[in-house]
Design brief:
The chain is of the alpha/beta class. It has twelve helices and seven strands. The N and C termini lie far apart (64 Å).
Length: 300
């Protein structure tokens, strides 16, 4: 704005020019941001509505039922596109909040608005640091195992549950996932760097096709005890009820994320025992479909 001859002008001879960008302090990226946006590329490219069925959601929540949700303030940590929230709203909570670090909240807002219900809110925040006045029920399903530090996510679950409230989580198990850990996970480390559309249609689609046939075949066969020794047997019977598009969705979720850990029951037990706020007599750890863990309890 001022020329070189303006009386107040200062000319710095011999000094390198610094751009505005170079003068800004560096702000570290949230360690889970890349994972959150990778999943957003999955959630934001799905048809409207929930990707899950009512029976699937009820299965994930057991031992919690609709009665544990009805009339209570509920929080979901890691809500994605609101697929679980759409079903939980049908259980008549007093209020339901959803929180996600990624831009999947855009799809969640559209899905929840289309439900016609108004007793919900969404927040785009880091679930590991989120602190509220507390909820009667807090759940996190399929999220903790994708965090850089899963225990921080679990601590947030407990921190946001009021005294007397219930919490419930679901994670990938270290047990029962040998095939996934040794075959799929190495592919994930490479595929997570690709554009989402290439991972979904160029990798997930052809890779899941043989498993789709395998699962459908297992479901059609008699339930011989010998078959139970086959890889992913229980899980295959569960997912075989769904169409190919859901198989591809699950495979894409496996491949698109930069971060996945498989959690042992000893780790979960240590988490549950690490907080004096947790009523130890209320805790549970239950295997689901032979390859994942459900766990939870009450807060004092």
């Amino acid at each position: 704005m001022f020329g070189p001859h303006f009386p107040g002008a200062i000319r710095r001879r011999g000094l390198p020019k610094r751009s505005f960008r170079e003068s800004l302090p560096s702000i570290p990226m949230n360690p889970d941001q890349r994972t959150a946006e990778a999943f957003a590329s999955s959630w934001n490219n799905l048809p409207a509505g929930s990707v899950y069925t009512r029976d699937q959601v009820a299965d994930w929540f057991q031992p919690l039922t609709a009665d544990d949700i009805r009339g209570r303030r509920v929080l979901e940590l890691g809500c994605g596109n609101g697929s679980l929230m759409l079903h939980v709203l049908c259980w008549s909570p007093l209020w339901l909040d959803g929180l996600d670090l990624g831009s999947a909240v855009v799809s969640a807002k559209k899905n929840l608005a289309a439900s016609g219900r108004i007793n919900w809110t969404l927040r785009q925040e880091d679930l590991t640091s989120y602190t509220s006045e507390g909820y009667d029920v807090v759940y996190s399903i399929g999220v903790l195992h994708h965090l850089k530090d899963p225990k921080l996510g679990f601590e947030s679950v407990i921190r946001n549950t009021v005294p007397g409230g219930r919490f419930h989580c679901w994670v990938y198990a270290k047990e029962g996932n040998v095939l996934i850990r040794w075959l799929v996970d190495p592919i994930r480390r490479i595929a997570s760097r690709f554009p989402w559309w290439l991972t979904k249609y160029g990798l997930a689609t052809p890779l899941v096709a043989p498993y789709f046939i395998y699962a459908k075949l297992l479901a059609a066969l008699p339930k011989w005890s010998l078959l139970r020794r086959l890889p992913l047997y229980e899980y295959s019977l569960w997912i075989a009820k769904r169409e190919f598009a859901f198989f591809r969705h699950v495979a894409f979720d496996q491949l698109v994320t930069p971060q996945t850990v498989y959690i042992a029951p000893e780790t979960i037990d240590a988490w549950l025992k690490s907080s004096p706020r947790i009523a130890q007599e209320s805790t549970y750890i239950a295997m689901r479909n032979g390859n994942s863990w459900k766990f939870g309890g009450r807060v004092r």
